[in-house]
Specification:
- This protein is mostly helical and about 70 residues long.
- The chain has one domain.
- The chain has 1 helix and no strands.
Length: about 70
């Protein structure tokens, strides 16, 4: 009986260790996705700002129609 309980306890501990490893993997995945998003914003931020400025300047120069 004690051996059976020992096996159950070891199985439970192994399952908890897997759960911890999975949480770490998800954390690393979230960090990688955040880094990619930040990189895209940094790289494309200036280009998008220039595009919006161009459109804004073009719209300001259009005469208003009544």
């Amino acid at each position: 009986m004690i051996q059976y309980l020992n096996i159950l306890l070891n199985a439970r501990l192994a399952k908890m260790e897997e759960r911890g490893a999975t949480a770490v993997e998800y954390g690393l995945l979230v960090a990688l996705i955040a880094a990619v998003i930040i990189g895209a914003v940094v790289i494309l931020g200036g280009k998008l700002n220039g595009a919006f400025d161009t459109v804004n300047d073009s719209l300001e120069n259009v005469p208003a129609s009544d």
